[in-house]
Design brief:
Blueprint (H helix, E strand, L loop, with lengths): L6 H9 L5 H14 L3 H5 L12 H14 L22 H11 L1 H7 L12 H15 L3 E7 L13 E3 L4 E2 L7 E2 L13 E9 L8 H9 L6 H17 L3 E3 L2 H8 L8 E8 L7 H14 L5 E7 L14 E4 L2 E7 L2 E5 L3
Parallel strand pairs: 1-5, 1-7, 2-4, 5-6, 7-8
Antiparallel strand pairs: 2-3, 8-9, 9-10, 10-11
Bound molecules: S-adenosylmethionine.
């Protein structure tokens, strides 16, 4: 029992309705847990886990992976992103035997923190990049991204963005983000001459396993996000982003140690990762960036939630910052972008 009640209370409260597959499954798992059923085994050891670890979402992602790899084809009909249109209210009877047949795997899935890589956030980074290109006058760009997840943000030059009165990126890209907003924004021409990222838990987007892993954390009825992720994975297969296993500060410092050509703008950018960094990681990353400014043309572009002084909790929506200056604001998953108020 935690301050938020029993595990069953938390499962029931998570969505608080049965309007979609996960709402139904969490309500059924809660009843099952109260009745001393299979849910007790599945969540063993996680009964009092802090609410923000969301073991229930980890379990549902584990189940989704079983479906994605084709081991429960009769469940596909309950997943709208797989073309399913069956009534979620009928899902529990079909899902329960699958849970029972994969208890060990699903229990292990509880140790996997949700790992998302939202490629539409690249719209915010694009706006920061345009500003950095304009003020440096350099169009050859080396991208370095700490907290990159699978590196889908590093594929900016393979994506198409459409705003209020502007568009950027290849017209034939399979990845198109509409509704980017920002009237009057002027995209800049640029060439990516290097791209590399790091993450504490990198995912290889170029393997079927990595692709399924990322897909499993996107809720099955979020069709636009699934479409975007699939298209970004397609681009990843061509541009093959490299993501090293490392923490932000040590990796940024190592990457910035080597000199670069004078006509290359190094852009250290990151999105929706800083809120997970300890304060020392943020300070050391910024120090490494600042120390490198005298050695190379460099810009620091961030698409991050503001972190108020003295508080660990992020507030509001992510802001696009270029070298600490706010140039636009956006939404958790990217567009629409707005000029700062
Ligand atoms: C919400 S995801 C965002 C991923 C990607 N930047 C995006 O916008 O889609 C946060 C990522 O930050 C990574 N992360 C958290 N702390 C980190 C650290 N100290 N150093 C490097 N990566 C970190 C996590 O592993 C996770 O992949």
């Amino acid at each position: 029992m935690t301050d938020e009640g029993t595990l069953a209370d938390r499962l029931r409260a998570h969505f608080g309705h049965r309007d979609h597959l996960y709402g139904v499954l969490l309500a059924e798992l809660a009843d099952d847990w109260d009745a001393g059923g299979l849910a007790r085994e599945l969540f063993e050891g996680w009964e009092d886990a802090p609410a923000r670890q969301f073991p229930q979402l980890r379990l549902l992602a584990g189940l989704f992976r079983i479906v994605l790899r084709g081991d429960a084809p009769h469940l596909e009909g309950y997943y709208p992103c797989l073309g399913g249109d069956l009534d979620a209210e009928d899902a529990w009877a079909a899902v329960r035997p699958v849970l029972a047949a994969h208890v060990v795997e699903l229990h292990e899935a509880l140790s996997e923190a949700p790992q998302t890589n939202e490629p539409a956030r690249t719209a915010g980074l694009l706006v920061g990049l345009a500003e950095a290109v304009r003020s440096s006058g350099l169009r050859r760009v080396r991208l370095l991204e700490p907290g990159a997840s699978a590196g889908l943000g590093l594929l900016v030059d393979g994506y198409r963005f459409v705003g209020d009165d502007w568009a950027a990126g290849p017209q034939d890209s399979p990845f198109v983000v509409e509704g980017c907003g920002l009237p009057g924004f002027r995209p800049e021409r640029f060439e990516v001459v290097g791209r590399r990222g790091c993450d504490l838990a990198p995912v290889d987007a170029t393997t079927a396993e990595g692709a399924a892993y990322l897909t499993s954390f996107v809720w099955p009825w979020h069709l636009d996000r699934h479409r975007r992720l699939a298209a970004a994975l397609d681009v990843a297969g061509r541009l093959r982003p490299a993501v090293d296993a490392a923490g932000a500060a040590s990796w940024v410092s190592e990457q910035l140690a080597a000199p670069t050509a004078d006509d290359v703008l190094t852009v250290v950018w990151h999105s929706v990762t800083r809120l997970y960094w300890p304060a020392e990681e943020t300070a050391a990353t910024e120090a490494a960036i600042d120390a490198a400014r005298s050695r190379m043309p460099l810009a620091h572009v961030a698409y991050e939630h503001p972190l108020p002084e003295g508080s660990g909790a992020p507030v509001g929506m992510p802001l696009v910052e270029v070298d600490g200056r706010v140039v636009a604001e956006g939404d958790h998953h990217g567009p629409p972008l707005r000029w700062p108020r």
